[in-house]
């Protein structure tokens, strides 16, 4: 009797854990993302990510995700020092633009030593430099209907290119920059050459590398599978990655 | 009520509704947080001290991945585990907050959990320790009261371990780190906070193990009934 009860308890506990698997994709669980975003924005909408001193940087800033896009187009750009590469700024803007790397480097710059937090749990600290995204969006004349900024990348994932998106609160945040330098050197291929996004209050998978285009949109529905990013579409990662 | 008659079981109302509700909600939340947390840990099973820490940096602890029968979900899914973890993080944290405020208001904390100086006297601790070895967990003159080791375990879990695991978890969030940089700084950096988060989880598991062992030793049916219905049977007095 007691044995049977114990078996029932053990079996029940294992069954409960296995039963959990069925609810993993439940929209109820996923709703916590919105709650956290709401709470974080309520207490720190304009807050700045912590910045560090030069000696606090990681000795080695590891590479993660794509190490080299290795597409024919990218390899030609890389072979000529990205002289022929252009950043396309389009979508819901008054003045679509194509910017060269030199033009981006001559815009007002912001340098920041920040901590990169990977969703896996590791962190690395490095110095990033580039123009603020707000400068470019203001120059392009963002439409009043635009709600999100989508970042298109040169590296391929499945059917399309890597992409990510952020809302306008993060897009106009002063620490949101398009970085072309890491630790006072031009980005190498592993770290996203020639240009990557830094959106410092979110996790690593939001920091899109190998940028080729910025698109202002009113909705994320028509892009990729509609969840706002490559990892969001393919694996169910949270779109709001401030958690 | 015929007191002092040892053959008549005496029932007392021991746990209020708010205590019982919180106990079970918290128990479920904790199990899910541990299971999903171990899955998240599996994505990078190395721990560091300081602000940064990645594959090329020195890890003070590196563990093999936890097996599927202790993780939520049981198959490898960092994204899935994060959905579980951040939903039940809200249950755990706000549940604890409501319970502590409520228990302060209804007097539970000051009446039942407050540790008196005389209870910490070595003589008292030693007597209570010997009582534990003899499986006497209750003072027959005041059977409703918690013994000193019980109080230390509950107070330590409620006011140290659970807040530590909650706040160190908050310090891992890059959004929270921007909003409350002092929190991450308090732990000595994000990777230190991650280590504290893991250690506090381990300490809570130790509490859970001791707690369940003592429930079994004290009489699981009576203890379970008390935590479900509130009514607890005073054990027959054992002569010291």
From TrEMBL, chain A:
Protein name in the entry: DMSO/TMAO reductase YedYZ molybdopterin-dependent catalytic subunit
Gene3D superfamilies on file: Oxidoreductase, molybdopterin-binding domain
Xref: PROSITE patterns: PROKAR_LIPOPROTEIN (PS51257)
InterPro entries: OxRdtase_Mopterin-bd_dom, OxRdtase_Mopterin-bd_sf
Residues annotated as domain Oxidoreductase molybdopterin-binding: 83-217
Highest taxon of source: Bacteria
UniProtKB/TrEMBL annotation, chain B:
Domain spans labelled Cytochrome b561 bacterial/Ni-hydrogenase: 14-230
Keyword Repeat belongs to the record: no
GO (cellular component) term, any one: plasma membrane
Parts of the chain that traverse the membrane: 21-41, 84-105, 152-176, 196-218
Subcellular compartments: Cell membrane
Domain of life: Bacteria
PANTHER family: CYTOCHROME YDHU-RELATED, NI/FE-HYDROGENASE 1 B-TYPE CYTOCHROME SUBUNIT
Family named by the database record: Belongs to the HupC/HyaC/HydC family.
One Gene Ontology biological process: respiratory electron transport chain
Membrane topology reported for the UniProt record: Multi-pass membrane protein
Example GO molecular function: electron transfer activity
Keywords: Cell membrane, Electron transport, Heme, Iron, Membrane, Metal-binding, Transmembrane, Transmembrane helix, Transport
UniProt-recorded name of the protein: Ni/Fe-hydrogenase b-type cytochrome subunit
